[in-house]
C-alpha cells in the first residue's frame, strides 16, 4: 500500500544521539510546529495543545534543571553517572519542544458538558499524543532527529515560572531535537495479526 502518510510514519524513530546542527533552518522547524498545533485534531475542536520551542541557553537551562532533579533522587554513584550521560545526550540537541495542555479550556468544557466531564481529561491526553506524534513525524520528514521524554511531573512549576507561562498550562512532554548523529537500529514489530483484527 503506497501512502505518503504511512511512509512518513515509517521515518519517525527515536533518536538519542542528537547534534546541534539542524539540516533545515530553525524557522522551518518552527513553522512546522505551528502548522501541526493548528491542524492536529482535538475533542470538540477544543484546541488545547500548546507548544514552546527552546534553543540555546533556555534549552540548556531546561536539561540542567531536569538533571538536578534526577540527581537528587538517585543515591547510587553508578546510577548518577548513567543519569548524567542520559541527560547530556538530550542537552546535546539543537533544541527542545515543550508540549502543554490548556487545562482552563478543559475545565470549562467539563462545566459546560457535565455528562462527559470525566472524559475530557482522557480526551486531552489523546489530543496531546496526536500533536506530539504529528510533530515528531513532520520532523522526521525534515530529517530532524527527535525523541519524546516525560519529566513534566518534576519540573512543571519551575518551567511555568521561568518562562512566564500561564498557570493553567500542564506540561505533558519534552521533545529534544537536532541533527541525527547516529541512525537507529532495526525495529522489531509484532505480527499485524496480533494487533489488528478484521471482523465482518
Helices and strands, in order, run as HEHEHHEHHEHEH
CATH 4th-level superfamily: NADH Oxidase
Q: What percentage of residues falls in helices of 4 or more residues?
A: 40-55%
Low-confidence stretches: none
Strand content: 15-25%
* Backbone structural class: alpha+beta
Rough shape? globular
What is the CATH architecture annotation? 3-Layer(aba) Sandwich
Number of strands: 5
Quick one: CATH class? Alpha Beta
What is the CA–CA distance across the termini?
22 Å
| Main β sheet profile | 5 strands, antiparallel
How many structural domains does the protein architecture include? 1
Named CATH topology = NADH Oxidase
Please tell me how large the radius of gyration is: 18 Å
Whole-number average pLDDT? 95
Helix count equals 8
Structural features, described:
By secondary structure, the chain is α+β, with helices and mostly antiparallel strands. It has a single domain (20-180), classed as NADH Oxidase (3-Layer(aba) Sandwich). 50% of the residues lie in helices and 16% in strands. The chain has 8 helices and 5 strands, in the order αβαβααβααβαβα. It has helices spanning 4-11, 26-39, 56-71, 77-91, 103-112, 120-141, 152-162, 192-195; strands at 18-19, 49-55, 95-102, 145-146, 169-180. Strands 1, 2, 3, 4 and 5 form a 5-stranded antiparallel sheet that branches. It is globular and about 50 Å long. The protein starts with a helix and ends in a 5-residue tail after the last helix. The model has no long low-confidence stretch (mean pLDDT 95).
Secondary structure layout plus pairing:
Elements: H1 4-11, E1 18-19, H2 26-39, E2 49-55, H3 56-71, H4 77-91, E3 95-102, H5 103-112, H6 120-141, E4 145-146, H7 152-162, E5 169-180, H8 192-195
Antiparallel strand pairs: 1-5, 2-3, 3-5, 4-5
Helix pairs in contact: 2-6, 3-4
